[in-house]
Amino acid sequence: MKEFDLINRFFKNRGHQRKDVIMGIGDDAAITKIPNKQCLAVTTDTLVNGVHFLPETPAEAVAYKAVAVNLSDLAAMGAEPAWISLSLSLPSTDAVWLDDFTKGLFELSQYYSVQLIGGDTVRGTLAVTITAQGFVPIDSALTRSGAKPGDWIYVTGTLGDAGAGLEILKGELQASSEDAEYLIHRHQYPSPRVLAGTALRRSASACIDISDGLLADIQHILDNSECGALINVEKLPISDPLNRVVSTDQAIDLALAAGDDYELIFTVAEDYKSKVETAFTSFNVNATCIGQITGATGKIDLRCNDKPFAHSGQRGYQHFDAS
Amino acid sequence: MKEFDLINRFFKNRGHQRKDVIMGIGDDAAITKIPNKQCLAVTTDTLVNGVHFLPETPAEAVAYKAVAVNLSDLAAMGAEPAWISLSLSLPSTDAVWLDDFTKGLFELSQYYSVQLIGGDTVRGTLAVTITAQGFVPIDSALTRSGAKPGDWIYVTGTLGDAGAGLEILKGELQASSEDAEYLIHRHQYPSPRVLAGTALRRSASACIDISDGLLADIQHILDNSECGALINVEKLPISDPLNRVVSTDQAIDLALAAGDDYELIFTVAEDYKSKVETAFTSFNVNATCIGQITGATGKIDLRCNDKPFAHSGQRGYQHFDAS
What we know:
Chain A is α+β, with helices and mostly antiparallel strands.
């Protein structure tokens, strides 16, 4: 199949079509409009076969996750997603695989009213690069640098599920078929917290999404905000399935360090605490207060029921740990 | 080297810094502003080692070309480039290679006042994906669909040089060291016709850049504009070095089909012909009239000194010719 045929068959005029896209797939570049008084948020993430997903991962999950991790980055900025561009590197053109891939791609983008506006298809090892763009009102973007001592630390959803799902897929962890299905789904089909991100625009002092693990990612907030964190590990939100398949200590380890959760960590000043909690009850995402920002610059103080807690696990996924 | 160290050392706060970038590298997404009454032009291109460039290509040239082909797409829309995002897939972190790579990346982006605003670095086979963004005034984008019978067909610069440069690199063509240097440089360091593209905004009826070859690329204009083309091959602009290293017939073949030139093909209505020619004399890019749009939908009529010309070569590079 030639590149143009492939694009026409699988990508052109498919999925959600937006009015702010003046020209989508089919010219040298897409042409789009952004609303008045809005800034543009832009993020790029690449998933490589065998590095970011297991080789036997269904094509639908590969596409879904590639979109999700990018929308999660926009969510962490408080941005509303609008458009994605896709670069797809494929060893060969496999129509069945591409049908599955586009199913995952358009399912998630349709849900968030996001349009695929362009991209590239190349021959190479399987890898998916997505650039996602969205809008955020001027001066409203959530950053990593606004946390202050005394702010409360929250996370959305539950943590550690994705890490357990990966261990199950690799045969390193046993679970009932129901729990396995739940945890694997959390690993393969993460939910970007788009609504939570936009709701936090005027309430959170800092925000980041959890891709590399809670400890690794909160560290970015601490480094950029020049502060520390006290985390009460007994408050970490753990799902029932995760509680059933691992011990409490293992669940805490996964929650702290496994990554791939794509939940948001955010900080909230005391004055905004009740506003945020009220807002979160109005849509279907839980937010759990897990600790507080401190003045101990760069330091994370882990406590379990007010006693020091020793975490021996590795701190987050490192993309280039050897060289 | 860890990913964050790699980004901090080689990419963060380097190259041109723009005032419209509110937040560049270092958060979950970049935040930028676009000017009033401007649309956004967005394009993505990926270069894969061994597919889009020879394995021994200098890192500087890989980066330069990856930026150039994207800026060329923006130029073909009449857009002024502003920001690029980079996804870099590397088998390992090689500081010498990365130094050379960033030299090429920042040289070209600095020249066009373009800022690197984000991206991703992953472990994998060597591949470079760039998403480039730029501005074009509302209703001013150059498309493939506006050509009309009678419009004149122009190309910028000279054609076929890049194809000859590739043949020299592959040992398939001999040339003096001076000519070889020129032609290889044209292959490895293409010049995106940014100024030409913006100058054509209100004058050209259609425009595309030549990546796959003149015949393959003009065909997109013909298909989208529902018209045909008469091309006078004796008028194709051929550089002196190319004329010295190949026969006239070979030069025409390269000009028609080799691709990788990243010159612009554009069409101009009779009423705008003198305006365009005057404009092009004011900056240092040649534009040559090579033929005229016809009513023979989808058909290309090649003539040499008014006689039919048979072109036996392949029509442009096909990215997925086998499956």
